[in-house]
Amino acid sequence: MRTDQFPPDIRPRVVPEVRGDYFYRCLGCESRFGIEKLLYTCPKCGSVLLIEDGEWDELKKTPGSKWREIFDYRRMLNIAGLSGIYRFHELIGSIIPVEDIIYLGEGHTPVVAAGDALCEWAGVHFRFKNDGQNPSASFKDRGMASAFSYLNYLIKRRGVKDVLAICASTGDTSASAALYASYLAGNVKSAVLLPQGKVTPQQLSQPLGSGARVIEIPGVFDDCMKVVEELSENYPVALMNSKNAWRILGQESYSYEIAQEFDYEVGHLAVVVPIGNAGNITAVMAGFLKLHDLGIINSLPAIIGVQSEHANPVFLYYVEPEASRRKFRPVQVRSSVAQAAMIGNPVSMPRVIKLVERYRGIAGEDSVRIVEVNEQEIMDSMLVANRHGHIACTQGGECLAGVRRAVAEKKLDPRRLAVLDATAHALKFAVFQEKYFSDTFEPEFEVVPRSELKNAPVSLSLPDGVPNPKNGSLDPEQFREFVKYASGAVAGILNIKPGGK
User: What pTM was computed for the model?
Assistant: First the structure.
């Protein structure tokens, strides 16, 4: 739709202008730093950073109802830079000109309602927001679109050259970072560090296909992250993990899209997200808080964070009911099918603590809850979801298991409508489905396949005397004989009887 077809009062706002006074704010000592160069931790105290807009109060001069109109009309534009997460330009990175925005098809992922049978199984009505339909097949593209758009801005407007983008990953981050870096080929190169033997073949193939330099490191993700942090502190590299505050900004779009999907009425929702490096739950809370502060939404949804008992530091932190007695302790992770969440020392934990406090201060103590599930529940839930018309990954299974657990533990009112984050495409984790069906899970996963969820192909054997196409071409009579026998055998396997119209 062209801008001249919009109402006159909307036309000047629908294509946004460059604005804002962005800065890094330290969550530890509250110091502020300019964004002229990339920072990942506070130069004074070493704590993590958030990005804030010094002109935020100017946005409050526009009523929430007007912002809703602007975002809804902007949804109809055919301008690439505003087609994805930057539809919410003023909330994400309004200092970046529209022409500098990198858009590869990320954002605007579907919210798919679960059928009645699956909702009954879960104990609550829910929908999957399928972020596996992002270009690299995971939610990470939201943050990368933001981080690489800012890199593109620095390259074009600030003269930055020869950027090496680097990240640690369990799979999805590396695929996304390599994809967006390859789009800026000539100005940006990418390198990824993966835990050796801890990434599925499908995930490993993605950064290789995008041309990244892939380095496998002994250990788990947390070990890779320490190496990457050391590199970012001592070498001229652009860190693309969620320690990069621009990543968090982009991932806030998940909340904005949910709000728009439900016509900005979200108080009845429970938004369920898996917790890995804690960047995603951080971004989801930050996004809804921004919308609430601008009056775009009138109430906050409940937030349910989910962790596997094999990687549960955030859950253990919030098990202690007294805030003054809580102490964060990293954990040694064990093998998990929810690989993106297999992180024992999440770098965004300080952001989580700060934002949970703010969120609960507005919406009440029960507005943010953390639940723990086991590996068996995760795999069973993923398979059950996909048996009911979804394409959920293991993290989507983790969310579904978490919803069931939250209802059972009375941490979620079953009258709410839950929105579950399927963070990646199911095909990325096909290896775990294969292990389940073939009962070949290693003991450390603690997954025992349920017979009713197992599946395998059935091979049709032809007896001697029945023409067989694999032996060569069949004449018409032989082919008819083959088809007649094969159709009867298939009918027997499927237990169907002959019948006519």
Answer: 0.93
